[in-house]
User: Fold this.
Amino acid sequence: MGPAPEFKGQTDPHFKLLIAEIVCENIVYKILEEEEKRMPREYEDLSVQGFYARHNRLAKEFLPIAHETQLTNQELQSIKQN
Assistant:
């Protein structure tokens, strides 16, 4: 495939933050898919609101981890202050 192209701003903290959020969304949906396969009865009558409640709970748990994998503590603090 060759080397990845360089994109303006790809090392900026806000870009890294966006990558972490995209990764988090994909991980959460994968977890929900796997849960549904393991426990289909719990998902049979699950409402849309129930699904998104689970989604939000998982995202709330995982997002800080995703942020820490992409950003340094200094970058995280800088973003939180702005």
